[in-house]
Amino acid sequence: MELLLTVLVLVPILWCIDGYPTGAHSDACGPMIPRHVGAYPQHTPSPYSVLTNSKMFYPGYPVTVTIAGPQYRGLLLQARSHESNDALGSWQLPPPDTKFLNCSNNPHGAMTHSNPNLKGVTTVYSWVPPDFHGPIYFMVTVVQERTVFWVHLSSIHVFRGSGPPPGPVAGPGRAGTGAGAGAGAGAGTGAGRAGALATGGQSGLAEQTSIVALVMSFLLFAILG
Ligand SMILES: *[C@@H]1O[C@H](CO)[C@@H](O)[C@H](O)[C@H]1NC(C)=O
């Protein structure tokens, strides 16, 4: 009986603060804000930075993107321009523990997590630019833990190159191999770099929410036990 009560009361609480363990939904494509019940984005400086392997892009030639900083559990990653909120280009074969998300009528328009396993700088995302005059930037929402997340973190601007890409660059025919090939380079340049992309303000709202949930759980256990 006590166990049943505990389950009946606790499961909905934990469920509510758990957000989306299997990835963002398409309705998050525009706002890029997870709908965790009772959790708010961090306003403290983000410990993450969004890194690219190039400052230039050439339509059809993959650019790799990594998220440097502490390991994270969830994300929503898109390429954007300042012209609209559309997700641009097409992501390639998702790295482990991630999947495509259909954004802007494009089934490969965004990447999100497929489970809450930890991801890190060795998780490399490969993006194929469209025929766009650019510049573009990569925008990401990173979920470190269920209720601790930073929204709208941006990479540098990546400008459209003119003419053919310089040097031996992976070509358009290599869809699916780009993620693996880029892993070493992307991971090496990003490790340990902290971003300063978010501005100051209300800090710790999410932690307070977690603590309230924890205290409630503890009280319930105390009462029922
Ligand atoms: C992607 O979403 C659009 C609507 O936003 C829908 O029309 C389309 O069928 C979806 N594509 C896939 C492959 O689910």
UniProtKB/TrEMBL annotation:
<dbReference type="InterPro" id="IPR002861">
    <property type="entry name" value="Reeler_dom"/>
</dbReference>
<protein>
    <submittedName>
        <fullName>Putative defense protein 3</fullName>
    </submittedName>
</protein>
<dbReference type="InterPro" id="IPR051237">
    <property type="entry name" value="Ferric-chelate_Red/DefProt"/>
</dbReference>
<dbReference type="Pfam" id="PF02014">
    <property type="entry name" value="Reeler"/>
</dbReference>
<dbReference type="GO" id="GO:0016020">
    <property type="term" value="C:membrane"/>
</dbReference>
<keyword id="KW-0732">Signal</keyword>
<feature type="region of interest" description="Disordered">
    <location>
        <begin position="163"/>
        <end position="199"/>
    </location>
</feature>
<feature type="compositionally biased region" description="Gly residues">
    <location>
        <begin position="173"/>
        <end position="193"/>
    </location>
</feature>
<dbReference type="InterPro" id="IPR042307">
    <property type="entry name" value="Reeler_sf"/>
</dbReference>
<feature type="domain" description="Reelin">
    <location>
        <begin position="6"/>
        <end position="172"/>
    </location>
</feature>
<feature type="signal peptide">
    <location>
        <begin position="1"/>
        <end position="19"/>
    </location>
</feature>
